[in-house]
Amino acid sequence: MSGQFLFDGRPVPFEEGQTILQAARAAGHYIPHLCWHPDFAPHGSCKLCIVKVAGRHVSSCAMPAKDGMEVESNTPEINGERRALLQMLFVEGNHFCPSCEKSGNCQLQALAYELEMSSARFAHFYPDRPVDASHPDVLLDFNRCIFCELCVRASRDVDGKGVFALTGRGIRKHLVVNAESGRLADTDFSVDDLAANICPVGVILKKRVGFAVPIGERKYDGQPISKVAMERGE
Amino acid sequence: MTDKPQAARLRVATTSLAGCFGCHMSFLDIDERLFDLVQVVEFDRSPLTDIKHCGPCDIGLIEGGVCNAENVHVLREFRRNCKTLVAVGACAINGGLPAQRNHLDLGDCLQQVYVQRDGVEDGGVPDDPELPLLLDRVHPIHEVVRVDYFIPGCPPSGEAMWKFLTDLIAGRTPRLSHPLLRFD
């Protein structure tokens, strides 16, 4: 079944099997997202891609498009809810942009700019999450993890190594390395793995190249993420 | 007599709590626009005037988070006196660099710095009664008082502060978006 639906009042065509997010993007409409990636199946965990269909909130990355749907996305109400989700992510971890070498290339930060988040609003947790610098080529800074599982999925499904996993539940959920010692150095993880190149935030960082591109010339410095993501197909 | 009476200038107070004065330095990056600004505002308590206590003001700009008892008193003085209170910079908004001690034990930090550090002999944690007591954690200012607006950045650029202040003074809702909205 193909057809068309209304996206913020504008007609968007879709093919059988496409999700709302896929069809909207194909028609040139950006929907904010963190855990969604064009090369992976929908994960549906970050909820940034939330839209309203017939008065109900749905994850547009997972919801199949249907003929005649009316989808609300870029509205003050939905963007306010997306901003609140970002604010919760910011207080849950330690997202200290001035000391992060991912600053300017970070999707979490870029989305906060996109949605004009000026403060984290809630009380900060300041969790204790020690870094893992054991690997010769890659640093893991768990302070910034947003649990999108892109590294978990990339390592398991593409690299075939299963280096990462999420463990714990609720507020105790955290990213772990799949080794007896828990150290990245004791895995077969390589800097060329897809998992080493997919983190949307500043958890998985290649050593010795942190500031090769200076602040001010980075991915989201020139244009907002809504433009960059559409141009690059991300 | 035909001259229109000049509108009273807005009073603005500024201070740095647990900050590095970098936001104040960045504020000076509005350069010669400072002259335009002082046509419409008058500075109350601020490092620019050296006035020690804040009187009734229209706008209060706070740099830095809350790391000790004195910061709490100063912040509450600002909130009591300022109609509009603005958190300026990363430290005021999320604790910033000083808050990087928040997952460490404060006693251990003090011992490490003043007693156990290499090269320290007969050290001791300073306990002069004049010194403000440290809080066990560094807090963003919105966890202590109500805050009306936030200007992120480390520091926010002079451009961002100019945009914000001119919006606010003109009676518009201040709005910062790409590329003026930055966290680093």
UniProtKB/TrEMBL annotation, chain A:
Every 2Fe-2S ferredoxin-type domain range: 1-77
Keyword vocabulary terms for this entry: 4Fe-4S, Iron, Iron-sulfur, Metal-binding
SMART domains in alphabetical order: NADH-G_4Fe-4S_3
Entry annotated with the keyword Iron: yes
Annotated InterPro entries: 2Fe-2S_ferredoxin-like_sf, 2Fe-2S_ferredoxin-type, NAD-red_Hydgase_HoxS_gsu, NADH_UbQ_OxRdtase_75kDa_su_CS, NADH_UbQ_OxRdtase_ferredoxin, NADH_UbQ_OxRdtase_Gsu_4Fe4S-bd
Necessary cofactors: [4Fe-4S] cluster
One Pfam family in the UniProt entry: Fer4_Nqo3
Record-annotated 4Fe-4S His(Cys)3-ligated-type domain positions: 77-116
Sequence similarity: Belongs to the complex I 75 kDa subunit family.
UniProt protein name: 2Fe-2S iron-sulfur cluster binding domain-containing protein
UniProtKB/TrEMBL annotation, chain B:
Signal peptide: none
Cofactor(s) required for function per UniProt: [3Fe-4S] cluster
Domain NADH:ubiquinone oxidoreductase-like 20kDa subunit: 20-167
InterPro entries hit by this protein: Hydrogenase_assoc-protein (IPR051349), NADH_UbQ_OxRdtase-like_20kDa (IPR006137), NiFe_Hase_small_N_sf (IPR037024)
One of the Pfam families matching this protein, by short name: Oxidored_q6
Top-rank taxon, per record: Bacteria
Alphabetically ordered keywords of this record: 3Fe-4S, Iron, Iron-sulfur, Metal-binding, Oxidoreductase
Protein name (record): NADP oxidoreductase
Organism: Aromatoleum diolicum
